């Protein structure tokens, strides 16, 4: 059975860079943002749930009405919980199927900014947090998304606090622009490789 690595971290932390390094090293990674967007269009259960919640206008033909969904989703914590209750169980099912199709791999990964908040802790064997100082994260996100500092800070406030996430992680990779990433990822793989037999015998 593959070791399942849960890769998380706040906006601008650099999760995607670490994911790409893992993939270069031969570890397939389930990118939850991409797969969730796919499922919200392709999965009939999600389509029915969102249509029931938001009305027929939540889809325009075969496309998701993203402005309508975003307006509702960010309207309140209750709204977000309602959408998440429709989407997250189907993403979990999809991730399990994805893992089953890669059962011969020693390791697989899932990248998700809200891995812990979304209840995916039980879906992975180890949680790896990609950590960067707050100001570094803000600058990266502003530059990457061509967004305002205010909007990025609002998005950060909606995510779990970095220090809380750090306490819940099994491993921390520091991506502050100064600490080399490749040695840290290699050390992570080396550490996980020592646990293969134990995990397979569970």
Automatic annotation (TrEMBL):
The keyword Kinase applies. It comes from the Bacteria. One of its GO terms (biological process) is coenzyme A biosynthetic process. It is an enzyme of class 2 (transferase). ATP binds at residues 12-17. SUPFAM superfamilies: P-loop containing nucleoside triphosphate hydrolases (SSF52540). GO terms for molecular function: ATP binding; dephospho-CoA kinase activity. InterPro entries: Depp_CoAkinase, P-loop_NTPase. Keywords: ATP-binding, Coenzyme A biosynthesis, Cytoplasm, Kinase, Nucleotide-binding, Transferase. Pathway: Cofactor biosynthesis; coenzyme A biosynthesis; CoA from (R)-pantothenate: step 5/5. Its EC number is 2.7.1.24. Pfam families: CoaE (PF01121). GO terms for cellular component: cytoplasm. Its main location: cytoplasm. Catalyzes the phosphorylation of the 3'-hydroxyl group of dephosphocoenzyme A to form coenzyme A. Belongs to the CoaE family. This is Dephospho-CoA kinase. It comes from Caecibacteroides pullorum.
């Amino acid at each position: 059975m593959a070791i399942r690595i849960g890769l998380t971290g706040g906006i601008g932390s650099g999760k995607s860079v670490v994911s790409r390094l893992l993939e270069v090293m031969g570890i397939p990674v389930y990118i939850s943002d991409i797969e969730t967007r796919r499922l919200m269009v392709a999965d009939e259960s999600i389509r029915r749930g969102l249509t029931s919640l938001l009305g027929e206008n939540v889809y325009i033909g075969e496309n998701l009405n993203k402005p309508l969904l975003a307006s509702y989703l960010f309207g309140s914590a209750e709204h977000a919980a309602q959408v998440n209750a429709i989407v997250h169980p189907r993403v979990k099912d999809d991730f399990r199927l994805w893992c089953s199709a890669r059962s011969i791999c020693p390791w697989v990964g899932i990248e998700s900014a809200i891995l812990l908040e979304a209840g995916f802790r039980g879906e992975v064997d180890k949680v790896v947090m990609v950590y960067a100082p707050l100001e570094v994260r803000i600058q990266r996100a502003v530059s990457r998304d061509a967004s305002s500092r205010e909007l990025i800070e609002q998005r950060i406030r909606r995510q779990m606090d970095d220090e809380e996430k750090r306490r819940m992680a099994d491993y921390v990779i520091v991506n502050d622009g100064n600490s080399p990433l490749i040695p840290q990822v290699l050390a992570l793989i080396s550490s996980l490789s020592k646990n293969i037999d134990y995990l397979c015998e569970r």
